[in-house]
Amino acid sequence: MTAGWSFVVADALEKVLPEAEPRALDPRLGPTTFAGETVAFQVALRPPATRSLNPIGRLLAEVDVDGPATAEVFRVELVPVSLPAFPIHDGGYLRDAPGLYPDLLRPLPPGDAFVPLLAGWSSVWVEVTPHADADRDVAVTVALRSEATGELLFEHTQAVEVVPERLPELGILHTEWLHADALADHYGVDVFSPEHWRILEAFLAETRGIGMNTVLTPVWTPPLDTAVGHYRTPVQLVDIDERDGRYTFGFERLERWLAMCRRVGIRHLELPPLFTQWGAASAPAFQVSSGGVLRRRFGWDTAADAPEYRAFLEQLVPALRRFLDRAWGLDRVFFHVSDEPTGDNRAAYGRAREVVADLLDGCTVIDALSDVELVRSGLVDHPVVASDAVHAFADAGFPPPWVYYCVAQQDAVSNRFIAQPTARTRAIGAQLFAGGHPGFLHWGYTFYYDQHSRNLVDPFADTSAGGAYPGGDPFLVYPGADGRPWRSIRFRAIADAMNDHRLLTLAADRLGRDAVFAALQAEGDWSLDHWPRDPEAILRVRRALLDALALVPVSA
Length: 556
Known about the structure:
alpha/beta; eight-stranded parallel beta sheet; about 25% helix
């Protein structure tokens, strides 16, 4: 080690803050991975004190893999967080002051040098993926060198334990809202142009890394997170032509979307709400061609129960159902009435539901909400419940529902804000398993707008939607160069959470659920309103289950 430099090898649960020496990786707890599963570790570094960059220069990060695996290297970059937490919040944050926080994983291709953070700690992130047929452990050597002199500043060989089998597919439904309009707007490409399709597929393919198996499909432009009277860039997959009050529908673009979903492994579709958010007061906007002219039809100025909207739905919904049943399978499609209804707009939601109830007969309808009375009254059959409201549904005797969290779930529960510890984010996988929840939803995979989508923001400079939401809530990946998604630390945390769920499922199948719950409970409470303050608790559960599985023949 070169004089004056400091280095620490850390696991992926550590967020390396500039002002604090990070917790070192415990080799007894990993890294461990299954064949085909990605695992990460990092090398934290702090340069010697200096008055300028000249004595330090740029660094090269080199990685070499001994064994059946590949490795990628990233530079963990600090991003601005104007709102790390609301002024009233719990104690589960790394810091609560606006500032720079580690989050962005900027790819470091071979030969690319970087300037280390001179004023404190930063890190180089390494992701290791054993081959799908890997049957032995691997060793990953990381070397940091001076670009100018070639001097070796640090070298470390990290053992990675590989379980020689594949984890089962994620046993729950998982959707993160892909905002197709935000990608077109950020990259400045025409909607559904060849370039837009290329970008969409790149971002959708990346979701497989987090176990996403369900995608929000913009058959019409989703009426979500939009200011009243305002309209987002239209991203409508269905062509609609109107003549004398009769509508015809073209599904060629939707067919292309389905083919894209099949290529990347998506199994379920989530259609946009049929009514506006937060009250179901109005109809969404549709793009309709009439007399060869494409215009907006319906929208904020159309009441949810307007006869003309009902007449339109009487033609659209049956045609859409027939197409999806033939081309995809209606049993793998979820419809929405309106997002996040509350007790205050129960009557409006009920009226909207009545408008489409007969049209959606036999379909699965899900909606995000927190008011147990909406379910008790029979208005919502398949609720997606905020994580901090699930206990009310359990107390009322309802079976475990789908779970979601967003900006409002900030006390006691897991979330993915940048200023929160990674363990708080990753805990959701074990929590969903422990609670028996069948699905998980998050609203922000690629939301690159400010609050209510009034303006586009630069997500590299604004992680808080114009200061409205805690940093990181609006998106999980950054819009990288050449239309490619760049991951975040939180992306890896969600990926690891879903892999935890897969491991717990595998262990329950082979060891029995009692054994799995004993391993979880040995490390504390895994209900939705508890998460492990000790990040290594998650790794200890994993270690205990891997040791137990090693004693059980695969055929048992």
